[in-house]
Amino acid sequence: MTVALSGKDIAARVEEKLPGSLEDSGDDYLLVKADSLVAVAEFLKNTESLNFDYFNFVTAVDYYSYFEVVYRLESVEHNHSIVIKTRCYDRDNPAVPSLAGLWQGANFQEREVYDLMGIKFEGHPNLKRMFLWDGFEGHPLRKDWNK
Amino acid sequence: MTTTEIMTLKTEPFVLNFGPVHPSTHGVYRMRTTLDGEVVIDLEPVVGYLHRGIEKLTEERTYGGIIPLTDRLDYISPMSNNLAYCLAVEKLAGIKIPERAEYIRVIMAELQRLANHCIAVGSFLNDAGAYFTPFMYTFRERERIVDLFEMVCGQRLTYNYMRIGGVSQDIPEEFLPALNKLLDRLAVFIEEYETLLKENEILLARSKGVGILERDIAIACGMSGPVARASGIKRDLRKDDPYSIYDRFEFDIATCENGDCYDRYRVRIEEMRQSLCILRQAVKDIPGGPVKADVPHLIRPPAGEAYGHLEAPKGELGFYIVSDNSIAPYRCHIRPTSLINLGALRDMVKGWKVADLIIIFGSIDITMGEVDR
Amino acid sequence: MEVGEERRYIYSAEEIDRYEGQLIEDLKARSTEPIPDPDTWLEEEGKRHIMLTTVDTVINWAKRSSIWPVICFPACCAFEFIAAEGPRFDLSRFGMEILRASPRQADLMITAGTLTWKMAPNVHRIYNQMPEPKWVIAMGACAISGGIFRSSYAVVPGYNRIIPVDVYVPGCPPRPEALIYAVQMLQKKIAREKVVPDLPEFLQKGK
User: Fold this and answer.
1) B21 contacts C72? CB cut-off 8 A
2) pLDDT tens, C130-150?
3) B232: phi > 0 → left, psi -120 to 50 → alpha, else beta; which?
4) Which of B27, B143, B156 faces C175 most closely, judged by CB atoms?
5) Residue C28 C-alpha, separation from nearest chain A C-alpha, in angstroms
6) Closest chain B residue to A58 measured between Cα atoms?
7) What is the spatial distance between Cα A140 and Cα C153, in angstroms, rounded to a whole number?
8) What is the ipTM of this complex?
9) A3-122 CATH fold
């Protein structure tokens, strides 16, 4: 059974190693500050007992006042999972560091989030539109987009 | 002894476009390949030719009304799509499913896996060059499975059969005897098919050792399904994170070591055998009772989020649903199995020739409806 | 275009993307009204010349008995089309034996799937590459009017914005039997076409 690790326990471990990187934590998620996202992700990937080497998916939700980017990571060896979230409060130019350097699976999915939501991923090797064509105006999945 | 002058031929790599309309690519998929002669150096997939905006359309429909949209995602295995979505909503709303509905769901999901692998294996051999003959054989068997689906829900392709809380209607009386007959027939068919293909020289020469996907790259890319299992990752959601009642059935997970095209073919054939095994157990134990829980028509799950996933025939298909206690979801994200499985195509293809590119792409088994949504 | 020494290829990927995006936007701006269906044969019903009918019949019989479709399979309806070509609902007994990969060798385009604006210039180009005489069957609800995806931002509301359509087949997806019926309707339509042009007025009977 894939165990969804408790957010509070993992938050305690992350705070110990990288203090000040978390904004909040819940029962099954960690809310990470945008600038320390790469450091936290690297910690989760490389720590021996955590070993989150399987990148499941990344998506974004538009909550009017902020965008929330949701990542789900799993470990093949230990069979456990965790959800990491990060928020962008800037509506005109939202930006989040890219995890494509750590996990190859993040490459296409981050391009999709950029295309449909407009969130830029800094450090992504090839950030351009994926599903929509080059001259399309706007980002359709935003709540304030109209045809 | 005379020395001959060797004339060095100056070559240059060029970009060749495998356009969206191409007889071998499975749907509207475009690749910009950089070739040096016949050898592939680089590959850039261009997708989006079937992007219909399903995720945006789900925000305008009620929870029950999204099920027909999910049919059109991976249109070769719609039962699995419906089931994945229903699992996500039931997790969010905390609904318990009656026993008979669970058994019917398992039967439909495994039949769908058989039907999907029929097409996957058939089109893999189509790409390998056996123009249409194996495809027609497997299509004949798929027609029999689709007949059973038509008996249950009246449709041949987009079933819309699962509902939140169960299934939409009970199976008719003639379904189980017909299913038993089909299981015997399919067991014979798989053996017959294997006899023709397992030791076939041409298939071995074209697919053994071709397009090897290493285990580390597969894990880093997030691969799932038969492609990942052929590379040695022993991961199947039916065993690792059992959903529905899969923990009551005994079956094996098919894995292989090398990760080449031939291994992916072997994994699919073995999965078909395991599906027959699960179906026999399910048919034996199916109880009576209602087939749908008492769920309101316009369901309003409590505010929150949930991720429901299952082992679809192509890999892990999941739905991430965010709800704000209204009749339509706030956000519904579909974890696209085929798009994620495409992530490793570039690594699999580098150094192989154009003909191998086609067969490697065919062995991953993707559907553009799921890539583009 | 000057090819400098540091550039490896003539066109960079960004230029190709921008050029193709421009093509899509231009096509979208041009296709605001559906193209009217080619129904000219409806007025011709009355004018039948005895001398030239035989030639028409023979030529039309040859045209309709071996229509070869082009492979253009966007989405789900493709699988019902393949099933129709399969061993159970055999379409090759109606002459549609071979699916031609190259549009230059095909006469019929069966549009099996949803059309998106990104794909539209390519479908238009394939249609233009097919030589005359050519016909189009719009298969499925998505091809007729956009279907279940009509309110989406990326879907063309029906193929007849881009190419003229001869036969519409409703269904989502239409059963293979419906597709066979559509092919037969198309064959009846081809049988009524006039291949040989009208005789000049002073030679027509009774005038």
Assistant:
1) yes
2) 998 889 999 999 899 988 898
3) left
4) B156
5) 11
6) B335
7) 8
8) 0.92
9) Beta Polymerase; domain 2 (3.30.460)
